[in-house]
Every structure is written in structure tokens, then in C-alpha cells.
Design a protein that fits this description.
two-stranded antiparallel sheet; 8 helices; 2 strands
């Protein structure tokens, strides 16, 4: 049943990517050049809704949050690899799958790259576990935990900040 939930949410996310027009090359290029914030607005709106929804489900006892440790070495290296791949291909992982589903065969290179990258990561993991994945290990942290306050005091601040950022983007024509 869990796999069916994943399939359903994946199809729904792909549908929303397509409807939001964020799989278009001009939107991808605009985001990379900081000239079109459509993708940023799309992802930030999803993050804000998910943040509130996941914490609500957790508080209701319907899910259990499991946090991964914050390890700067892995985050920085992964971010650099992600950024280089996005810059070369013009798609991020989610948009490459959606673009392929739309018939854009150039996205297949990105998907093949993700599969190859996953295989390389699996092979390199033992070495990385002793090196990169130990650099800047801050353990299991969250903003509410760092501040010592309830998450429901932080979530509205992020939502208000996100809405203000959306308004600023619209004012600037981004």
C-alpha cells in the first residue's frame, strides 16, 4: 500500500510540474539566471504546504518524523553535483522525469546520469562514510529545536516570509 501512495503522489507531483509549466526549458534557464522565479515559487509553495502538513500529521499521531543528521560535507558536495547537472542539462531530477513523460527525449540523458550517479554513490559510500560524510556533522537539528520553541511558532513565520517573498517576486516581475 505504501508503494501505491508513492506512485499516486509521484503522478500528482508530475501533473503539477506540468501544469505549473516548470518543466519548460525557458523556465529552467530563467531560474538558473535568476530572471524567472517560477520554479522557486513553485517549490517554495510546496515546501511551505508540506512543512505545515507534515507537522500537523505528526502532531495528530498519523506519522512519525524521523530526522537525518545535518552533515555539511555531504550537503555541499551533493549541492555542487546537483547544480552542475542542472546547469548542463537544464532539468533537475523531478523535471527531467516529467519532461521525458512529455516526450522530451533530451531529458533521458539526465535520467541516465541520475542512475549512473546513484551507482557511483553506492560504490563510493564506504569511502565517503569515512570522509565527506563526517565533515560538519551537526547531528539531528531543526530550527525549532535550535531555538528551543514549539514548531508552531516557527511555521507561521516561514509562511509569512514565503508570502512576502512571493509578493516581492511579483513586484519585481520575476
Amino acid at each position: 500500500m505504501i508503494l501505491l501512495y508513492g506512485l499516486f503522489t509521484g503522478i500528482l507531483f508530475g501533473f503539477l510540474l506540468q501544469k505549473g509549466r516548470v518543466i519548460r526549458y525557458d523556465k529552467q534557464l530563467g531560474a538558473l539566471r535568476l530572471m524567472d522565479m517560477t520554479i522557486v515559487k513553485f517549490m517554495l509553495s510546496h515546501i511551505l504546504v508540506a512543512m505545515a502538513g507534515v507537522y500537523l500529521l505528526n502532531d495528530l499521531g498519523l506519522v512519525k518524523l524521523v530526522f537525518k543528521p545535518t552533515i555539511l560535507g555531504g550537503v555541499i558536495l551533493g549541492g555542487v553535483i546537483f547544480g552542475i547537472g542542472w546547469g548542463f542539462l537544464g532539468y533537475c531530477p523531478g523535471t527531467s522525469v516529467a519532461a521525458l513523460a512529455e516526450g522530451r527525449w533530451d531529458a533521458l540523458w539526465g535520467i541516465l546520469g541520475m542512475l549512473l550517479g546513484g551507482a557511483v554513490y553506492a560504490e563510493a559510500f564506504p569511502l565517503m562514510a569515512e570522509t565527506v560524510l563526517t565533515w560538519g556533522n551537526y547531528g539531528y537539528i531543526t530550527i525549532p529545536k535550535m531555538l528551543g520553541i514549539n514548531h508552531w511558532l516557527i511555521i507561521p513565520v516561514f509562511i509569512i516570509g514565503g508570502l512576502a517573498l512571493f509578493k516581492w517576486f511579483e513586484k519585481k516581475g520575476l
